[in-house]
Amino acid sequence: MSKKKILVFVDWYIPAFKAGGPIRSVMNLVERLADEYDFYIITGDRDLGDDKALPNLELNEWCQVDKAKVIYLTPENHKLKNFKELILEIDPQFIYLNSLFSFNFTLLPLWLNKRFPKIKFILAPRGMLGRGALEIKKKKKEVFIGLARLIKLYRGIVWHATNEKEKSEIENNFSSKHEVVIADNIASAPQFSFQEILEFKTMDFERKRFLFVSRISRKKNVEKLIEWFLYVATERSNFQLDIIGTIEDQEYYSELKLMIDKSPNIRIESAIPPSELAIIFAKAHFFCLPTRHENYGHAIIEALSYACPIIISQRTPWRNLEKEQIGWDLPLDKPELFISVFKECIDMDENEYLQMSERASLYAYEHIHRTDIKIAYRKLFS
Fold it and tell me: Once rounded to an integer, what is the mean pLDDT over residues 107-132?
């Protein structure tokens, strides 16, 4: 019996990496479900923010990339006519859209929904309907959502929510009449064994290493993170904060650079490939993400998989971390709590840290190897 076909539209795909979570979501989906479905991926030819195609790609032709067939389209081929031809060529049972606001890779293919009534269109908003996410470019997004409701842009599609909270966000912004299927994101396993990770962590243990990995944007509250660590630096010097991510806003980045020039303990650099990031996660002692909104947070579960306790805001699905003894989820309106926790982490002795680190690793292992994930996705693609 031949496998059903899933045609995915996504702005970026491996070897692109600067967009972070959206790429990882699709990559992990393919990795986990390729034994049950055939995946075809239509994507762009360049990474986030780049003006040139990624090197060594076959452009505008289907090619095998790990367990999926992928076509990297040059910008002039991001057209309705080309998308229609590719859909006819593949003849999928499902079309999966991995964004809410992408013009080329969501809105254009969505416009073809009525022309292909036998194909099930599935849309994953990827946290873009969360309160924190909608606060950024608020007016523009309000106009878009209002217009989309008016013209019934999303009529007949199935929404993919990753949790109950996102399901509520979809229903609040559109309608409770829409079909929404909940299937949690799929996480990836670490590249090193637990023992190897512990060896990295105990090197130069007295100088605690804090890590931020995400897009460097206002949504992620990077300026607050730096501000809090600058305060910590007035009382502690035995720490290092590494901020790593795609620079989306050059003006914002310049503001951050001016701030970190005040401290040799804080460093910032642009996104690096996942293969190089693994060693950085393994060496880090704590992971920080004071985000305004996170639908899932691939970097959060990745940090936990590398035995990193986490210090994050309460605006993510990852809650009750202190109870689990794997980190802290803190309210953004109480910066003094973040500062207090940072100091506590810097002062933590090795024995206490290693116990917390082991719990973080075990928690991530159980999450990554959950047996209910495939069941949820079978319902989504049914």
Answer: 89
One domain for residues 215 and 102: no
What are residue 8's phi and psi, to 5 degrees? -105, 130
Residue 353 lies in a domain: yes
Helix-strand-coil split of the chain, %, nearest 5 = 40, 20, 40
Alpha-carbon distance of 89 to 141, in angstroms, equals 34
Cβ-contact 210, 243 below 8 angstroms = no
**CB 288, CB 311: distance < 8 Å:** yes
Say if residue 158 is in the same domain as residue 212.
no
Domain count, the chain: 2
Instruction: Give the CA angle between residues 311, 316, 322 to the nearest 5°.
Output: 40
**Per residue in 11-67, pLDDT tens?**
999 999 988 888 999 999 999 999 999 999 999 999 998 999 999 999 999 999 999
Q: Is 170 exposed, middle or buried (0-12, 13-18, 19+ CB in 10 A)?
A: buried
User: Range with the lowest mean pLDDT among 39-43, 125-129, 198-202, 357-361?
Assistant: 125-129
Residue 184 three-state SS: coil
CA quadruple 359, 334, 289, 373: dihedral, nearest 10: 60
CATH of the domain at 261: 3.40.50.2000
pLDDT for the residue 221 = 94
Start-to-end Cα distance in the chain = 16
Query: 219 lies in which domain range?
Result: 194-368
Same domain, residue pair 124 and 263: no
| pTM of the full structure | 0.84
Residue 177 confidence (pLDDT) above 80: no
pLDDT at 131: 75
Assigned domain for 189 exists = no
CA atoms of 221 and 191, how far apart (whole Å) = 28
359, two tokens: 């719990």
Host H or E run for residue 363: helix 350-368
